[in-house]
């Protein structure tokens, strides 16, 4: 079980603004905070997310092929998370919409993709019934 995912940042104040807004939409807040590290989530909840200045003092870089997926409760929340990301210094990687074809149970992967201000890739998604 994943406890939390950590993403590097070169500007913790800027990252905090971005993730504070995302976390608020997800119904959580900061659960741990230090001078170089902030984690969002619930101690008794699912996996959290953290932004950190690299421990080795080197510049934070983006992992090629690395992405954090945020499970949304419905399509409206996918859109809100995407909009919040863009309004807080994030960049577009794919507007909200269906991806692929429905599975044998009529479930469809619905997602929006974006990057945080440091370039880390995230998405907001859900498995939803075809409308």
Automatic annotation (TrEMBL):
SUPFAM superfamilies found in the cross-reference section: Glyoxalase/Bleomycin resistance protein/Dihydroxybiphenyl dioxygenase
PROSITE patterns, sorted: VOC
Pfam families membership: Glyoxalase (PF00903)
All copies of domain VOC, residue ranges: 1-127
Domain of life from the UniProt record: Bacteria
Name of protein: VOC family protein
